[in-house]
Amino acid sequence: MSLTYTAHDVRRNLRSIPNLVFVALLPAVLFILFGAVQGWSDARLPGGNVSAYVMVSMAVYGAVTATTAISAGAAVERLQGWGRQLALTPMGTGGYAATKVAVALLIAVLPVVIVFLVGAFTNASMDDLWRWALAAVLCVVVSVVFAFYGLAAGLIFRSDTAVGAASGALVVFAFFGNVFMPLSGGMLTVARFTPMYGIVGIARYPVTEGEVATMGGAPQTDSLLWLVVNAVAWAAVFGIIALLAARSSTGRR
Amino acid sequence: MNTTHPPQPHSPAIQVQDAVKTFRTRSETVRAVQGVSLEIPRGGVVALLGPNGAGKTTLLDMVLGMSEPTSGAVSVCGERPRAAVAHGKVGAVQQVGGLLADLSVRETVTMIASLYPDPLPVDEALERAGAASFARRKVAKCSGGQQQRVRFALALLPHPELLVLDEPTAGMDVQSRTEFWDAMRAETERGLTVVFATHYLQEAEDIAERIVLMDAGRVTFDGSVDELRSTSRHHTVSFVWPGGEPLPEFAGATVSRRSESRVHLRTEDADALARELLTRTPASALEISRGGLDEAFAALIHRDDAAA
Prior knowledge:
The structure holds 2 protein chains of 2 kinds. By secondary structure, chain A is mainly alpha-helical. Chain A is 76% helix and 3% strand. Chain A has helices spanning 3-15, 17-36, 50-87, 93-121, 129-142, 145-157, 160-176, 185-191, 195-208, 224-251; strands at residues 44-45, 48-49, 211-212, 220-221. In chain A, a hairpin with a 7-residue loop joins strand 3 (211-212) and strand 4 (220-221). Chain B folds into 2 domains: 14-229, Rossmann fold (3-Layer(aba) Sandwich); 233-291. The radius of gyration of chain B is 24 Å and the shape is elongated. By secondary structure, chain B is of the alpha/beta class. Chain A: The chain crosses the membrane at residues 20-40, 52-76, 97-120, 132-157, 169-191, 224-246.
């Protein structure tokens, strides 16, 4: 893996301003709208307040937007001939994948840092410093699941516009994954099986310790095991789809 | 994996033995390369000439290790193609794609250079490829000819022993084409082996010492430009014909061109035609020339069609 290559690729991604607005600023704005300024923001959860809960949710949303965009872009750039150029260098497919994961995670750090800073300077609070640190690290780590999603989308649709659509679909996943608005009843039951539910639950664990925030209704909890199973299962599903798409794209010629 | 082929310093740049490559599509099996054997020694410039679909790109893909032959063997500088590529022995300018539009020229070269253990310095690669003057430009804003020079700079990075160019000047205007080949000539003077695919006959004639002609997946000719020219059995006999006089039919000859004063006839037996013209007709100022490269080329390409 080449540091120079990785650094140039990160810089190249940071240069595309429109993407950056979506990745870094939108989650911060969403946090302020749905977290910081709301009346419920000071309500208590086992490890912090509701404002911190919303903060982590939005940071995860920003991070997956980043990893989706980077990995989908990687698939498209490979199909458009950059892959042939790289095939003439000593960097193999493994090296390329490692580089792109590094780039995606580095870009994913950006929204997490911004949202957490906004949270820290407003009214997000967690009981311990380690909860802050752990939550921030988890936000970045869990976003890897959506690197597979982006990869699959890029390999299947093979164009930048379709990749944009795949990024847009993240809003739907986020809504049904209990990321934005606390869901309840039947919606919440369905949500437990959607792809963002597991990862956002894991990232919020330092705040919630499994407690599910609902707007009224009986209190519920999620086991960490269930959240991990959800995340791993969806990573596997996206990964397998990406693998199949990659096979058919190389089999063509 | 490499135990069978230890790299040998004097092995040929490219060795292809009975290479066959077939592609299976849903409806049919395409036999892109149908048994090609070829040896290209080190040094020198070889043109791989042929019409579109002749199998040139497929053959070069196997040489670059982008695909494996269905049967037969390909070795490059005495190694398996992938190993030769990984060891930086091969540089290539490919036909399509291959560049990221939102990078600058210098960034592109810097990124690829960083992947090699001991690359040519970026500035030197840009200079030698003739890309230094627009190094700060975004790739998206470069002309087709400039993008080819960027690819050329990338090809030079690993200090290659062999340069493979797939239709490197396609879509270039005359001036960029000349400049491109001037830069390439400087590289061959350093001892590089250059193999380039083209469907421009003129380019093959001007640049290459040796021409390998491919058609329908096979090598139909392999030799020097002069040898290619001499494969043409046709001669052109031209003469001045008096105005107003009707031109009779001549056995075994066809009119290939007729200007105001001169008539050009194409024939396989120039001597007999000349004898007849000078003894029995008012033809004067007779000239005989051997068929051009174009004719030789056309004859070699269409021979297979006729046989099929």
